[in-house]
Design goal:
This protein has 148 residues and is mostly helical. It has helices at residues 2-25, 28-31, 40-54, 68-84, 91-105, 114-146. The chain has one domain (2-146).
């Protein structure tokens, strides 16, 4: 019985990840982020897995243009926190950050609800703060190496 449940949950993750991949693949710029070993499918699966663990209710209806940003936002926040805590991100985990930033930086359609606009602004703000903190960490690391 446990095997059946495990297979069922993996199947559900795969289906949701496929739907997320389809939504993400609509953005041509996102394809440019994937020049290494990680694939869009792997990143989508990681995003789904993280979102299922944190906010499974977001995925009850699947992934579409309206759930895309909230789903990606959760994984983005988790990866930013993990990174700032000094934990090393895998390539797949790291790619969640620029993918999220790219989605948030897209021009807003005129009919975009205010909560989505606010979410996009929060992602961009958090990205900027994360980028600044990572730059400061790299600079501090370089300075320590020079003084040894």
């Amino acid at each position: 019985m446990t095997l059946i449940r495990t297979l069922g949950s993996k199947w559900a993750v795969a289906e949701l990840a496929e739907a997320l991949t389809v939504e993400l693949a609509k953005e041509m710029e996102i394809h440019r982020l994937f020049s290494g070993a990680a694939t869009l499918d792997q990143v989508a699966e990681k995003i789904i897995t993280l979102t299922l663990a944190e906010a499974p209710e977001l995925l009850k209806e699947g992934v579409d243009e309206w759930t895309l940003l909230p789903v990606v936002s959760i994984a983005f926040q988790l990866m930013v926190v993990k990174s700032l805590q000094g934990e090393r991100l895998t390539q797949i985990e790291h790619l969640i950050i620029p993918v999220s930033r790219h989605l948030a930086a897209q021009p807003d359609p005129k009919d975009l609800p205010e909560p989505y606009r606010a979410m996009k602004a929060r992602i961009l703000d958090l990205y900027q703060r994360w980028d600044t903190a990572k730059t400061e960490q790299r600079n501090a690391s370089r300075n320590m190496m020079r003084h040894q």
